[in-house]
Amino acid sequence: MFVITPVKLTIAVLMAFFAYAELSHTFFKINFERRFLPLGGLISGFFGGLSGHQGAFRAAFLVRLGLPKEAFVATGVLLACIVDLSRLTVYAAHYIGAGLEENIPVVAAGIAAAFTGSFLGARLLRKVTYRTIQNSVAGLMMMIAIGLGIGLL
């Protein structure tokens, strides 16, 4: 069942805008100065708290900083780990004893997939250009935006 809510639709429109801006190559040609990093953090944190999609907004902001591709990926990974660690501590505090042991195989599979993705990503990163990373981020953001906009996510 597809459920479209005002929050999902708003997030979808914003994500689609950022993705389009990145894919158009001419629409949004500015690079943010480092002094705007706190603003990017504020925006991605706000939308992360609102909908859980801070990673996409963070990527949209960071991609405009002109970081080397390794720094872009490393920054995204580090920030995602910090966010996930804080989430896990909250989840653990609320759900201890709630039958979590039955989900251990799913958690183990997720951890294995994350390490496998990191391992493969580190090797592929050497072979791709920064523009490829920008286009990939923008394309994936557009897919998430469409999924949210039609109520699939």
Blueprint of the fold:
Layout lengths: L5 H19 L12 H15 L2 H9 L6 H27 L8 H22 L4 H20 L4
Helix pairs in contact: 1-6, 2-3, 3-4
What does this structure look like?
The protein is mostly helical and 153 residues long. The chain has one domain (6-149). It is 73% helix and 0% strand. Helix 1 runs antiparallel to helix 6 (130-149). The protein is globular, with a radius of gyration of 17 Å.
Features:
6 helices, single chain, mainly alpha, 153 residues, globular
Q: What is the residue-mean pLDDT, rounded to a whole number?
A: 79
Largest sheet: none
Estimate the helix proportion, in percent: over 70%
Q: Report the C-alpha radius of gyration, rounded.
A: 17 Å
Q: Low-confidence parts lasting 5 or more residues at pLDDT below 50?
A: none
Beta-strand fraction estimate: under 5%
Indicate the structural class: mainly alpha
- Count of structural domains: 1
Shape: globular
Q: Give the quaternary arrangement of the chains.
A: single chain
Query: How would you spell out the order of helices and strands?
Result: HHHHHH
Number of helices: 6
DSSP E strands, number: 0
- Distance N terminus to C terminus? 10 Å
